[in-house]
């Protein structure tokens, strides 16, 4: 597809772990011929370490500062950025995203999140956590996620339905 959305700045997909940001962002970037940048993947490549190892060896604060570094260096247009689930926690990250683009929040109920991430060992903040603890983390972050330009409740939607909704949003955005 041509770059029909030229002129739109960066589109950030935000949301909790397992909401589908990386999966959906990849499909949208392919459909629109946009660049794709996944902040988690970028950090792992740059640091030559898995996220789990970064958390273990350097701690969460170091990881959050790496997220800020990635956001500061983003290209300015035709890019879908799929963010890490906790990127919104840091105020400076929220400011950079707001300044550089539009934010689409992919909401998903915790029960579904837990189904999707069951058995996953790559997300340090989900290891050995009860449903209540995961929900607590989600509730702490909720106001930051909700501070987005668009919100999609993905809980009962298929991947292709979510992709279609985002494409509609981008069309609407473009015609403003
Ligand atoms: N709408 C959906 N329906 C069914 N499965 C989904 C849906 N969205 C995502 N998934 C599945 O859920 C899992 C987690 O998705 P994904 O890795 O894209 O989440 P994420 O939001 O990028 O998480 P993280 O914040 O940890 O990076 C994947 O296995 C993906 O295929
Ligand atoms: O929600 C979070 O804090 C995280 C989500 C993942 O995308 C990774 O960025 C990492 O596992 C931390
Ligand atoms: Mg992801």
Automatic annotation (TrEMBL):
EC number annotated for this UniProt entry: 2.7.1.71
Record organism: Alkalihalobacterium chitinilyticum
Q: Where in the cell is it found?
A: Cytoplasm
EC supergroup of this enzyme:
transferase
Q: How does it assemble?
A: Monomer.
Keyword vocabulary terms for this entry: Amino-acid biosynthesis, Aromatic amino acid biosynthesis, ATP-binding, Cytoplasm, Kinase, Magnesium, Metal-binding, Nucleotide-binding, Transferase
Protein's UniProt name = Shikimate kinase
Q: Which pathway is this protein assigned to?
A: Metabolic intermediate biosynthesis; chorismate biosynthesis; chorismate from D-erythrose 4-phosphate and phosphoenolpyruvate: step 5/7
Reaction catalysis annotation: shikimate + ATP = 3-phosphoshikimate + ADP + H(+)
Q: Which gene encodes it?
A: aroK
- The record lists Mg(2+) as bound by 22
